[in-house]
Amino acid sequence: MIALAEHTLDELSEAVQKLGEQKYRAKQLMRHIAAYDSFDEYTDIPKSLIAKLKECYLDRALTEQTRVTASDGAVRYLFRTADGDLIESVFLPHDYGNSVCVSCQVGCGMGCTFCASGHYGLQRNLTAGEILSQVLYIARDKRSEGGVNKIVMMGSGEPLANYDNTLKFLRLVNAEYGLNIGMRSISLSTCGLPDGIRALYRDGITCTLSLSLHAATDEKRKKIMRIAEKYTVKQLIAALAEYFRVTGRRVVIEYILIGGFNDGESDASALKNLLKGLCCHVNLIPLNKTEYCDLNAPSKKRAYAFCEKLNGLGVSASVRRSMGSDVAGACGQLKNRTFEQAEHTE
Ligand code: SF4
User: 287: Cβ below 6 Å to ligand 1?
Assistant: First the structure.
């Protein structure tokens, strides 16, 4: 049985007609899906249709297992899927609106050395409805605080390694009949799959695209990111340049600062040379240490010196705050930070 949230409006129209109902019922149903209502709340839908729906569909894809709230209002939710997998999402309140960081896979197969999600490997892809339901649930839960205005695909998993579900999710969450969240309010973070990047713009996606680069040379990147064995940094930058050319969206380079590894003068110069001509901004994120790696963050002074060096070389860059609610963290780092902060306030 699948959840109703798996369907687009067209698919739902077809489905209700197959159940012998009028097409317009699909729009009514969509309003309940977007509100994350239970079948009990479908008060404008005939009981006969609800009975038919119950035979084929779940009203909700996820149930909350637990949550942890951090001192800055960030909330970590642990959800259970219908088949019993556990996934995590993070709510991040800001003065300028609320964000939700979603997971797109159970675990992750990319194996970045600094990431807790990658440590356990990939268990399965999440469906579009399961990714969407993380946002729907939290939007309902936080309705009195303004709901959800922005989405960050930066939780567990590599979005472009689960391309079809990611694409459908982006279309569903962007749809007028859904939460209608604009592409400019959605960020997708990838560890670097050039074919997936090209597929995004070919499919008309214009969200903010962030590349977790973390090292400016293939040699260094291979030491911390398995994906670097497959694609060179030049291939990635070429794909980003095409993304910018087609969408007009400035891309984001995420660069986790690892003390004594990628934060020296030669690293800044290599980064400058690599990014020459690319319309981008570099987010420098001091490493958030996990128990799975023995890498360390640089001192604050060294992190800011690296940033100044980049700025001096003409590269737009800034250091991100080390807070759980900093949505511009890197894949695998945001989640760790939020959890770390939340756990300290329990
Ligand atoms: S950092 Fe992102 S891509 Fe890398 S293992 Fe973690 S979740 Fe996967």
Answer: no
